[in-house]
Specification:
It is a single chain. It contains eleven helices and 17 strands. The protein is α/β, with parallel strands linked by helices. The chain folds into two domains: about 5-100 and about 110-235, Aspartate Aminotransferase, domain 2 (3-Layer(aba) Sandwich); about 240-365, Aspartate Aminotransferase, domain 1 (Alpha-Beta Complex). Strands 2-10-9-6-5-3-4 form a seven-stranded mixed sheet, sandwiched between helices. Strand 7 (about 160-165) and strand 8 (about 165) form a beta hairpin. The structure holds pyridoxal-5'-phosphate (PLP).
């Protein structure tokens, strides 16, 4: 039986990629901000509608280095309803995550609960546009201005989205993207930071390339987190097909919605107003009393039939083993509750209507 996983990495035709990397054999220039890196950086600025972007080795390092570039101290307000990377990036910078609950409609940080968590140690807010749902950016911006806090968005799920007609990479002081193989858009592994202040871009460049400024000049204490030429080439290829991929995902999303939209005890999450979505994920929240089955029962049933959905995001990060003695998942009761009831169904361009119907049939029966 061919299993259906939550996602399937988008890939260009083999020949297209080979054509793209041919020059690398001729030039022997494989990494260190070569021709593909530069070209990809320029193409991304156009596609995402941003002025400044720094390419890096993956989304997690983009996040870690961005927090470092802002010289943050003390506490960072964030949510536990996210991938491990968000919380780990804060903790690995010797900062303390302060968890704010999410709102149950779109799973993003509940902006009305942020102010109560601010102390004199707070230096930044790190919200997540989870599943590609855009946070309450106006409210967050207002709070950040009032208390002089930096806003860094974990925009790993939002590649290609716009909010009120503007590329989402323009939101906050910086936004980070992931180009991991499992994301809507991939460079195999890869990531990027979009930023407003040029000085932040310079610092991230230092951090990703050992602080090297010339053959004999090393003026920063950086690490190594460069994107190599093969990943940039993959990005150039996948970028040619991204609109097609998103359009195909939209069809899958509509299919799911038409079948599951009115089922009692099954809550799906529509596209937000003012957002052009990338249809990255299809989260479904089950109400066991109304639906008759729990999330875990549905999960097991799907797995038996060769469908592999994911319990994203369960457990919430504040409930991870590594944080057991430090945080209490009950501090964010809504995130905790939803994490136990949510299932993300398979969604990718090539999934097709037949598979969507098959998946829904298993759920409904
Ligand atoms: C994927 C992801 C990351 C990390 O990206 P990588 O490219 O895998 O390092 C960070 N935050 C969120 C919300 C993600 O889903």
């Amino acid at each position: 039986m061919n299993k259906i996983f939550i996602t399937r990495s988008s890939m260009p035709d083999f020949e297209e990629y080979i054509e793209e990397i041919k020059e690398l054999w001729d030039s022997h220039w494989l990494t260190n901000m070569g021709k593909k890196h530069k070209e990809f950086q320029a193409r991304l600025c156009e596609y995402l509608g941003v002025k400044n972007i720094e390419l890096v080795v993956n989304g997690h390092m983009a996040l870690e280095m961005t927090l470092q570039a802002f010289n943050l101290t003390g506490e960072v307000i964030t949510t536990p309803y996210t991938f491990a990377s968000t919380t780990h990036a804060i903790v690995r910078n010797n900062l303390t995550p302060v968890f704010c609950d999410i709102n149950p409609d779109d799973f993003t940080i509940d902006a009305d609960k942020i102010e109560a968590l601010i102390t004199e140690k707070t230096s930044a807010i790190l919200p997540v546009h989870v599943y590609g749902k855009i946070c309450n950016v106006e409210k967050i911006e207002k709070i950040a201005r009032k208390y002089n806090l930096k806003v860094i968005y974990d925009a790993a799920h939002t590649f290609g989205e716009t909010y009120k007609g503007e590329g989402v990479g323009n939101l906050g002081d910086a936004s980070i993207f992931s180009f991991h193989a499992t994301k809507v858009f991939n460079t195999i592994e890869g990531g990027a930071v979009c930023y407003k202040d040029k000085k932040i871009g310079d610092k991230i460049y230092d951090l990703k390339n050992f602080g090297i400024h010339g053959p004999e000049v090393v003026s920063g204490i950086g690490a190594n987190a460069k994107m190599n030429e093969f990943c940039a080439a993959m990005g150039l290829c996948n970028l040619r097909h991204i609109d097609e991929e998103i359009a195909a995902r939209k069809a899958v999303f509509k299919n799911y919605t038409s079948i599951l939209g009115d089922v009692k005890g099954v809550k799906i999450s529509p596209v937000q107003n003012d957002v052009v979505s990338n249809y990255a994920y299809f989260p479904v929240v089950f109400d066991e009393k109304e639906f008759g089955k729990s999330r875990d029962e549905v999960f097991d049933e799907l797995c038996k039939e060769g469908i592999v959905p994911r319990k994203y995001f369960y457990p919430i990060t504040s409930d991870f083993d590594c944080y057991k003695d430090r945080f209490n998942p009950l501090d964010t009761p809504i995130a905790y509750d939803i994490s136990k009831r949510v299932l993300v169904l398979p969604i990718y361009g090539e999934l097709g209507a037949e598979n969507v119907e098959k998946i829904c049939k298993i759920i409904l029966e």
